[in-house]
Amino acid sequence: MYKAILVGANLKSDGLMDYYMEELASLAVARDIEVLYTMTQSINRITAKYYIGSGKVEEISTFAKNLDADIVIFNNELSGSQIRNLENEIGVRVIDRTMLILDIFAVRAKTKEAMLQVEIAQLEYMLPRLSGLRESLGRQQGGIGSRGPGEKKLELDRRRIEADRSRLRKELSDIVKARKIQRKNRTKSSIKKIAIVGYTNAGKSTLLNALIECTHRDIDKKVYVEDMLFATLETSTRHIILDNNKEFIATDTVGFVSDLPHNLVESFKSTLEEITEADLLIHIVDTSNTFYENQIEVTNKTLEEIGVRDIPVIYIYNKYDLIEEEIKPLHYPSVIVSLLEEQGIKKVLNIIEKELFKDYEKVLLLIPYNEGELVSYFNENTHIISQKYTNEGTLIELELSNILKSKYSKYIK
Ligand SMILES: Nc1nc2c(ncn2[C@@H]2O[C@H](COP(=O)(O)OP(=O)(O)OP(=O)(O)O)[C@@H](O)[C@H]2O)c(=O)[nH]1
Ligand SMILES: [Mg+2]
């Protein structure tokens, strides 16, 4: 296990420094790194040589030696030469927040698509830092930050890395094309789609699993849930059929985090496109985090960045079981729940149904007895409220979408 000292330089004084450092610590834990100590410093300007002042570097160096740390992780994004200078001075490996996040993604990526996306982002991160990193990488024997393209490409020059990147991009675009065709087939069926979005560890996969349980089938298609940042990176899509026959497609998506590396968002865009095609977004919020309002903002900004516009959103203020104080939601429509409780899932289902099937209306149909197959169709595919047999035929009260309503208008009583 790696043992780390975390360092944060505070330029903005936006009052969020403690939050950022706590989050950096969680990111470290997500990569199996033990955090020994956290150091922060307010600075007025960034120095070219070390980012922070040289006095602070000496201090870090002393702490690193005394605590026997083997890695220093900066919350701020460093240049190649800053990394090299810091390593020379401190004597242990130095990485920044971006490298750490990229590394977590590299370890967690399971599908070919996710692996390619991460590797492209890593190469892009390396390119502008090549001159500084080259020396630093040369001294490393694998480990954090050198997973993926780092070490093995050490001896290669920029042109080779650029060629690699083009090759990976081509490979990725082939996979993306195939997936788009798959998705088109799904879209054709005009079935409604929801995308579950939110900050990492908010409970997105927990909701997808709860929805899967509602369908009473495909229980083995549950996704991975864990109290850890970036537990699931791949988008998982499931067909949900509720007890009342209403159905929709639900997609679990990769979580967001503040300062998500831009390259990473860029290369995950193809996966995130699913979000832009949803009819409804379910934004999960972890209210047990003191800074959840900030997390909502970060999530909404990232959604904007990937081109999400004008899609209705429901806010799920989750993990209510963990907090004592009352919550005043700033976003609507919303519900305050615990997704670990049945009552909470019910509330969420209710609000999803209400929003997603807004255009559904109660109608009364009279189906002549010689068209009995229509009665079975409605029973299998729609939500029947009541059903009666009369002299003229079967009288059915049910909920229909606008499209179906006009299709069967001649039966309306
Ligand atoms: N106490 C409590 N824990 C919850 C609740 N909802 C989810 N969790 C837990 O929170 C942790 C994260 O849940 P996930 O569903 O994996 O979160 P996610 O949003 O998919 O996270 P990533 O995939 O890592 O981005 C798990 O340990 C869940 O069991 C809740 O309402 N209350
Ligand atoms: Mg998840």
Ordered list of secondary-structure elements with their pairings:
Blueprint: E1 2-10, H1 17-30, E2 33-42, H2 54-67, E3 71-74, H3 80-90, E4 93-96, H4 97-108, H5 112-126, H6 130-138, H7 158-188, E5 193-198, H8 204-214, E6 236-241, E7 247-252, H9 262-267, H10 269-276, E8 280-286, H11 292-305, E9 313-318, E10 334-336, H12 342-356, E11 361-367, H13 372-381, E12 383-389, E13 394-400, H14 402-407
Parallel strand pairs: 1-2, 1-3, 3-4, 5-7, 5-8, 8-9, 9-10
Antiparallel strand pairs: 6-7, 11-13, 12-13
Helix pairs in contact: 1-4, 3-6, 4-5, 5-7
Bound molecules: guanosine-5'-triphosphate and magnesium ion.
Write up this protein.
The protein is an alpha/beta fold. It has 3 domains: 107 residues, GTPase HflX, N-terminal domain (Rossmann fold), CATH 3.40.50; 168 residues, P-loop containing nucleotide triphosphate hydrolases (Rossmann fold, 3-Layer(aba) Sandwich); 51 residues. The chain is 43% helix and 20% strand. It has 14 helices and 13 strands. Strands 6-7-5-8-9-10 form a 6-stranded mixed sheet. Strands 2-1-3-4 form a 4-stranded parallel sheet, with helices on both faces. Strands 11-13-12 form a 3-stranded antiparallel sheet. It starts with a strand and ends in a 6-residue tail after the last helix. The model has no long low-confidence stretch (mean pLDDT 89). The protein binds guanosine-5'-triphosphate (GTP) and magnesium ion. Magnesium ion binds next to helix 8.
